[in-house]
Amino acid sequence: TSKKLNVKTGMDTESIKADILSHLRYSLATDIETANKKEFYKSVVLSVMDRLHDSWLNTQKEYREKKTKKIYYISMEFLIGRLLDNALVNLNLEQEFRDACKDLGYDYEEIRDIENDAALGNGGLGRLAACFLDSMATLGLAGFGYGIKYDYGIFKQKIHDGYQIERPDDWLRFGTPWATTRPSVMYPVRFYGRSVPYTDEDGHLRFKWENTQHVYALANDIPMPGFRNGVVNNLRLWKATSPKSLDLTSFNQGEYINAVRDIELHENISRVLYPNDKIFVGQELRLKQEYFLVSSTLQDILREYKQQHDDLRDLPKYVAIQCNDTHPNLAVPDLMRILMDEEGFDWETSWDITVKTLSYTNHTVLPEALEKWPVSMLRNLLPRHLQIIYEINKRFINKVHEHFGDDVNRVRRMSIISEGEQPSVQMANLGIVGTHKVNGVAALHTDLIKKTIFRDFFEMYPERFTNKTNGITPRRWLKQCNKPLADLITSEIGDSWITHLSDLRKLDDKVNDKKFMKKYSDIKQQNKERLAAYVKENYGFELNTKAIFDIQIKRIHEYKRQLMLAIYAAAQYNYIKANPDAPVVPRTIIFAGKAAPGYAMAKMFIKLINSISDKINNDPDMEGKLQCFFLDNYSVTLAEQLIPAADVSEQISTAGMEASGTGNMKFALNGAVTIGTLDGANVEIKEEVGDENIIIFGLTVEGVEELRRSGYSSWEYYNADKALKQVIDQIRDGFFEPDHPSLFHTITNSLLDGNDYFLVLADYPAYAEAQKEVDALYSKPDEWFKVALYNTARVGKFSSDRTISDYATDIWGCEDQLNKGRE
Ligand code: 26R
Fold this sequence. Notes:
The chain is an alpha/beta fold. It has two domains: about 75-80 and about 115-470 and about 805-820, Glycogen Phosphorylase B (Rossmann fold, 3-Layer(aba) Sandwich), CATH 3.40.50; about 525-795, Glycogen Phosphorylase B (Rossmann fold, 3-Layer(aba) Sandwich), CATH 3.40.50.2000. It is built from 33 helices and 24 strands.
């Protein structure tokens, strides 16, 4: 072509090709003839980065120049997954890069699949943070993500002989071209030492934190582009590095070698993501990670602030800091410490600034997940912070007395410090007392925290509590992962839905449009076949694409009740064996999910699912009727394959235990029918799609309470339901594991002698009935796909754009930024 190439920023295929070739040669010292796929992938990403840099710099410059209020989202987890597709969708350069790859001899899909997931999270909380970054950029909010650049993300899961085994997730082995290290942005983070009182010039008592040890936090930035709006926000991930100034001159050779070897000890802080989901384990390294994140982030926020403003008393006017769960709640005492010890403010002024700047999101009511750091550990690691926490608590307890009078039990419940054998700091209480807004993540969840775990606090500070129902980004969870459906929708109603998801309501009218409905159902079939090919290729299983694809994917946890679906699978097996000639609606049940490495019961569930799967899949009588699979190593990328292919979405937690769920939203958007309990956001999904378009079963929160109060006995349910009893007996007696018949006794004991805390048996009969409804509906394809379409059309509320707008308006005080960003 005669057009002049603009190698670094040209948006045409020829410029992009030239840039890829230039990166191969000048960034990677290879060329198109000798490069391997990984190198080609790297050059592609570097070429994408070139096309982000101007917008990235301009966006940040504009925020500075206009003194825009900045929103800091602090999170120990960002489960962002792959970035290439997302960047290209947002830049609107998918076709150009596809063509460029093709012209250079590569298949785009093949290159895309080189990328390792950035799996810096456990599950819902981390993925939510990633969706929020996408929405903040798309809305044009000055949003900044702050987290840790773990060398190892969530472990890789393999299955050996049916058991989960864990392998390190070495995602950075070949580096990542998405992260830019910023040597100019580095802060010391201090630990240990002691708090020393002194009197300042004005005669005030003050404290210095002395004799500390320190590590450095080094900034690594990942660009977060908005959807086709020229905005590129920043995700800053801190990497721990050792202090540079080791005094090596006094060392002999042995000490020198040891000193260099010890560098690695400092770097251990950002080595690995803790793989616990909802179980608090009070390890010092984890506490170090949390303070490492908080300290470096606050230093960065305040340095940036001081470059643009001169009075820290205006901090809440220009800065909002959101803590993702209690994990970053040391921000409360750390900001107090900075304002008092380093900036010289008095307590009251510091407190006012701190509370008005910070807010905190609660993501679970499970008591075992609440962080309680031993006072002894804090005293050792962060003595000045502990001292401040004690002072916060003292002043707070006085307020409690003022508010409620002498109510010792209430004071004990509300105290930030819990006394007893092992005094500890209740991080949730600290978060409520030290911030101006506390939010739950779905309407039901917010009601529950007000009535249960935070009841006393709600009575004292009702205006502090607010609901922000979770959401998901429609860019990744429809436009990217389900291109055929996205294209069909756009051809019918235009593409405004990508940023205004409620516009999907326009599809409501299409239920009677036969031609449209044919296309809609064909796409589901096509997605099922695409998934089948993927599963064949990656797992070796042959999925029956004529069957209902019935999918449960999420962390393995007792309260999520994977066991209930496993029991249903076994019961179906028994039914088909006993009624070989009876008609059945074919089903393919698919599980995926990781168990925390220390969670024995969850790991046993995986083994059980695999044993039941083996039984089913190896029995010729099941052919064409029933299949069951556990897909190992669940990830964001695997979810992107599974969700568009799902017919049925399993959302079957014990009512009151799933704070929100976000997978439920992704499935509904992609036209799967939910079978679920009235828990978390399922309640709101039902309100949106209508009662006829979701299959709800089982105990409600009130029902659960009532049943427990009146004396639940799982034995009664076991004896009352023959099919259920048969399966439990089979599990107990080794039917699924003949070589080790007692293997699953931990499971059956917890169901029977342990009285089934999660009420699997209580809900099972209703669940089995609901599954019959699924079969009946699926047998009438026209009706089935109407229901499916109503799901796609009516879940616009669950766009994370809506969630973020609500945070912006009710918590962050930056609603003025919303309309600008939308253009
Ligand atoms: C510190 C440790 C005990 C811990 C690790 C991880 C505590 C909590 C978590 C993560 C949690 C609680 C989590 O992921 N919660 C989920 O948050 C989602 C987003 O709000 C919800 O959709 C989901 O229901 C909830 O379980």
